[in-house]
Amino acid sequence: MKKNRKTFSKRNIGGMFKSCLAGLALTMAGSLTAAHAVEELEKDELKFGFIKLTDMAPLAVAYEKGFFEDEGLYVTIEPQANWKVLLDRVIDGELDGAHMLAGQPLGATIGFGTKADIITAFSMDLNGNAITVSNDIWAEMKPNIPKGADGKPVHPISATALKPVVDRYKSEGKPFNMGMVFPVSTHNYELRYWLAAGGIHPGYYSKTDITGQIDADALLSVTPPPQMPSTLEAGTIYGYCVGEPWNQQAVFKGIGVPVVTDYEIWKNNPEKVFGVSAEWAEKNPNTHKAVIKALIRAAQWLDANNDANRPEAVKILSQSEYVGADYDVIANSMTGTFEYEKGDKRDLPDFNVFYRYFATYPYYSDAIWYLTQMRRWGQITDEKSDQWFHDIAKKVYRPDIYLAAAKELLEEGKISKADMPWDTDGYREPQTHFIDNITFDGRTPNAYLEKFNIGLKGKDTVK
What we know:
There is one protein chain. This protein is an alpha/beta fold. The chain folds into two domains: 2-126 and 270-419, D-Maltodextrin-Binding Protein, domain 2 (3-Layer(aba) Sandwich), CATH 3.40.190.10; 129-269 and 440-449, Periplasmic binding protein-like II (D-Maltodextrin-Binding Protein, domain 2, 3-Layer(aba) Sandwich), CATH 3.40.190. It has helices at residues 2-12, 14-25, 29-39, 57-64, 67-70, 83-92, 103-110, 135-141, 163-171, 186-197, 228-233, 246-253, 262-265, 278-283, 285-307, 310-317, 327-334, 364-376, 386-396, 399-411, 445-449, and strands at 45-50, 74-79, 97-101, 118-123, 126-127, 129-134, 177-180, 219-222, 239-243, 256-261, 272-277, 337-339, 345-347, 352-353. The chain has a five-stranded mixed beta sheet with strand order 2-1-3-11-4, with helices on both faces. The longest helix is centred in the middle third of the chain and has 23 residues, at 285-307. The N and C termini lie far apart (56 Å).
């Protein structure tokens, strides 16, 4: 039905629709306004990419609920093989934009991996990831974890519970392998953050070694999200950090245990963004703004009325053209709960956040946190001034475009004034909810880096 509706609206009645608008414009002022808005678009047929994760939901919802069409946009949404292919296709112009890792526009802009100017004017969600370990590793960790009065493990679980296991592997000369989805992914930085907070060194990058495994206690490598459970089951990796539904899939299959969510590592952390090339944005400013308007409305719908629409969202995402996992697997986290050890399901209403807490606003400080982690682990090889961090953040993150879209939605009565941080300077107040209790202030990135025992800072380099 999805494809039929799209084809019908674009091809079968495209000319008739425009003719009708022209005729109605003679008698209906509202239609005249709508026709004028459509005519101003530089491009109305668009192709967007995504990876099969539940946090691509704003794209699916904007399509399925007609929010793109409300803006005069006819959109095709395509799953991509992996994050590199997705980024390359945006750079090459095969895709007009995509669901991206928050670190991808930043990494591309500073030239880590592929060099390209990518921007974002929309943050797609907060939270949504977890770290899962195999059943065997969980059995070794469990004696090191405090238990509550109900006999269940006390959360959040620190990586100190994993450290004796990793130490044993090292003493026996065995590599302790873990998976993450991409070198500049949130998952890489969250996994590294959690490990380091527990005294486990996740390794460095250098100018000549981009494996990220220099001096590592745990060896992190890339595995595409949908392949995480099978790779864990095969014993190739002993744990991983990934988005949903691939942690809950491990629980359902009985092959692993999610031990900590990213909400517990960094409460309400920014996750994915919608990215476009800077060149595309410059050529298509009205189209870009229209896309952001549709995505804002989709995010609003996802969180409306205390997540009342989430069951419908899960039904959409379970379709094969989107995430394609079983309804129950996706619902396990999307509807406000999260299952850790089999049968240990707990309320976690903010595991997925799409709109509340100003989730969609592209904060400069969010960009700076990712840049600090790139510096901490050697992806940024040399010392940078605070001003450098601010300049890169402002080049890549574009709240000006976001607020222009939000202003139009406000004028149209589609959002409330209280929904947006109209007066912010782009920086969040210092954030304290990290698993290691270290405060992050995006205004002072180098001072933040100085707080860590494990990681590069100042003039540190890796040979």
